[in-house]
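REQUEST ID: PR-0412
SUBMITTED BY: lab tech R.K.
PRIORITY: routine
TASK: structure prediction, single protein chain
INPUT:
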Amino acid sequence: MTRILIIEDEPDMRRGLQDNLEFEDYEIAATGNGSEGLRMAQKEHFDLILLDLMLPGMDGMEVCRKLKESGSSTPIIMLTARGSESDKVEGLLTGADDYITKPFSLKELLARIKVILRRTEPMGGSLRDYAFSDVKINFEKYESCKGNLELDLSPREFEILRLFIEREGETVSREEFLKEVWGYTSFPQTRTVDNHIAKLRQKIEDDPDHPKHIITVHRMGYKFLR
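STATUS: complete
OUTPUT:
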């Protein structure tokens, strides 16, 4: 069973998260103290940590920093009322995998959790290793190369490629990317997907201005051709 650690000092929020996540069949441990949360995370195995920032004992940023410095690979979603861009950037640079601003919907949180857990699951079947043109990808180790050169792909870019490959030849809408890769349940009119696709083309296409693998489907989305 998937184990999640909740480190949240607001009793009602902590209890609500625990009840709802247990209803989704996750095994939950919870604490309202940052120092205690760090001790639990270092002593026990968890598949995911939900981490508030404003905590007694030790704030969430410091908990995250100490976990990453100790070599922990457990994914972390930060939960906080501090929603400024600088706070989000600091949290991600500290080592968080995602950052959700309070108040948030349970539906959105569950979607984000599923995206991150899927990213950390051991790969099975043919998608463990995949090759097209001169590009080779190992989804299990998150390694890739083009020809003899290593590709510097972000975890998000690996997930975009994974979805493309799973849906090879099919048109994938921007909304589907935002749901399956980002975990969004509402779809603001942004160029988030387009910007990531453009960067990915720069890395994997021989001629990014005339791509042969990631094809734009006008007004609909993108499709992947091997």
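NOTES: The mean pLDDT is 88.
REVIEWED BY: pending
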